[in-house]
Amino acid sequence: MQKPDENVVIITGAVGNLGLATARAFQSGGHKTVLVDRSQDRLRDVFGSVAASSDHLLAGGVDLSDPVSLEKLVADTLVRFGRLDVLVNTVGAWRGGKPVHQDDLETCDFLFTANLRTTLLCCRAVIPQMLKQRRGKIINVASRNALAGSAGYAAYSASKSAVLRLTEALADELKASDINVNCIMPATIDTPQNRAAQPNADFTKWVEPSTIAEVILFLASDASRAINGAAVPVYGKG
Q: Which of 20, 54, 132, 139 is deepest in the core (most CB within 10 A)?
């Protein structure tokens, strides 16, 4: 069993609502974090208090849709820490509202890139090092919408369903090497953006980012070592 302060955790989308809550949860638990975003400036603005710490790495300028960029991220992580133990893929996007035959192909491409391609490439980037260590945890973020399609949200539901299937396949491939791969399925997350988009909704039924982060923290812990290939519902009261 590894102590928390020995764990190195890569968190994509670290300045987003869920990414920030997840980063704070791991940092509070004593973990070392690699905080990933396209913008180094955004990372400094949000995580300036840990920027000078040897226990944390602000990894800006990373394009999660580019394998070369991700190779550099992993290399930089190993130079700083010598290992990586946990990957949390919080990057994702939501768009919807149009029926399939009217939706722009650009929207479909955007959602499959933001939700599936980034998750797939991030997993591919870290797995070789985890195989060398014969230890690792990968936590992906799917969605409640991954379980069933609904009118106006075909591309989003399909992209998140693909994340779920990817999680299951990776879990089956990697379980013999003591690498656990799981995903969470949030319902509507209580964020300022979602409140603005749905001002008449009952926000008390939504799930807070900090609550989701606690579930992610558990899946990254040794206590979850018997859980592999799971899709954990995190619905709040919805």
A: 139
- The alpha-carbon radius of gyration of the chain (Å, integer) is 17
CA 13 to chain CA mean position, Å: 7
* Residue 108 Cα to chain centre, angstroms: 20
The edge-to-edge listing of strands for the beta sheet with 136-141 is: 56-59, 32-36, 8-12, 86-89, 136-141, 179-186, 231-234
- State the pLDDT at residue 133: 96
Three-state secondary structure of 59-84: ECCCCCCCHHHHHHHHHHHHHHHCCC
Rounded to whole angstroms, how far apart are CA atoms 236 and 13? Answer: 22
**Residue 210 to residue 188: CA distance in whole angstroms:** 13
- Tell me how far apart the alpha carbons of residues 230 and 55 are, in angstroms, rounded to a whole number: 30
* Segment 113-172, tens digit of pLDDT: 999 999 999 999 999 999 999 999 999 999 998 888 888 788 899 999 999 999 999 999
